[in-house]
Amino acid sequence: MQNFESFANRQGQPCFHRIIGISEKYLQEIEKLDSVKNQIYLRMNQFQILSDKNQIQQYQENLEDYQKQIPEIAEMLKLYHQSVRQFMPTIERNLLISVLFWYDLYLKNPLSQTGRKKLVCSGKIGYKEYLFCYLAYLKGCDVLLLLPEGELNISEILLKQSQAFTIGQTGSIHIPEYHPKKPEIPNRPQQKINVVHPDRKKQNTELSSEALARMAKSVVMIAVYDKDGNFTGAGSGIAISRDGYILTNLHVVGDGQVYAVRLENDEQVYPSCQIIKYHTQFNLAVIKIEKNLEPLRIYDGRMELVRGQKVIAIGSPMGLFNSVSDGIIAGFRKSENQEYIQFTAAVSDGSCGGALLNTYGEVIGINTAHIIKGENMNLAVSYKQILPFILGFLR
Q1: Is the Cβ–Cβ distance between 4 and 17 less than 8 Å?
Q2: CA proximity to 219, closest of 82, 394, 357, 51
Q3: How confident is the model at residue 189 (pLDDT cuts 50, 70, 90)?
Q4: What is the pLDDT confidence band of residue 93, given thresholds at 50, 70 and 90?
Q5: CATH of 200-393, one of 3.30.70.330, 2.40.10.120, 3.30.230.10, 2.60.130.10
Q6: Distance separating alpha carbons of residues 387 and 241, to the nearest angstrom
Q7: pTM for this model (two decimals)
Q8: Averaged over 140-145, what is the pLDDT?
Q9: Integer Cα distance of 364 and 140 in angstroms
């Protein structure tokens, strides 16, 4: 069908289109659209709902900064004001928080890449979702809304910002989820390690070095690939939920499109294609795999950490899967409201995103950086930033 094909092959200025109704080859046209190469492409059937209270508060506190960083928001808000009969600051704030959450989740990473960008949306689309799509259009994306059940029930002023194409009768149809083709990931040999996770009932007791090392079962290695399937780097991560959620550093996964996760005692490679949540300032990100995991416990801050306190670092430096090293806390550093733990346990490239444990087997930090010219001068993001960031994922 011409409308699908013209959208797929669009050149020149970006477009914002709506396709209303169902054609005879509707699903085949969507399948063809999904397979177009050499473009940065995202199709989604529903928008993720922001429910994490801590994250909502973070957006509330940073609304002004976001509006300075993304000047197109002003034009989006101008259109919103024209479309409403009565302006209410609370509703506008909620709109902004939702749009910025989706911007971070769906747009920020694609917009950092070069190439034609296409966004295709279906499912429940109200004025918030529409305005997000309008923002994507203002940022240079080709945007297509699939509306098999009929026209949107939103203001005409909003609808005028996109072009409608009716291709058939309206009705209900199941549009399958989009699953980007994952690149083949080399099956690199790895050493088998027999691991037994320590009994969680005994975590009020300090653990031996051997018992702490066994907690590597809950630390993973993450290989990062670009949109063409090229390997770009590797790092580490820690299991934070039995549901497959993994915490790592944003700089480990931020430039990737596909992530390959490896676990100890498991030959399978678990792919992940999406950053579920991230925080730029804290340098933290969450990805998810389809695998039940044994989560590590995050330190609750019941006592202040002190210099000289023994720590264990677990990660995959230089691709050496789940290496374990010990050391002490050397100090505490602050930079732009970010708190770091300085420690002496040995880490190298590939350790970032791994676990820094106390002697009770609790995560007190995420290994984040090492100073190349320094002797065992390493930094970890503190549990004080980690806990509020992952609160909604703990199971």
Answers
A1: no
A2: 357
A3: very low
A4: very high
A5: 2.40.10.120
A6: 13
A7: 0.53
A8: 95
A9: 42
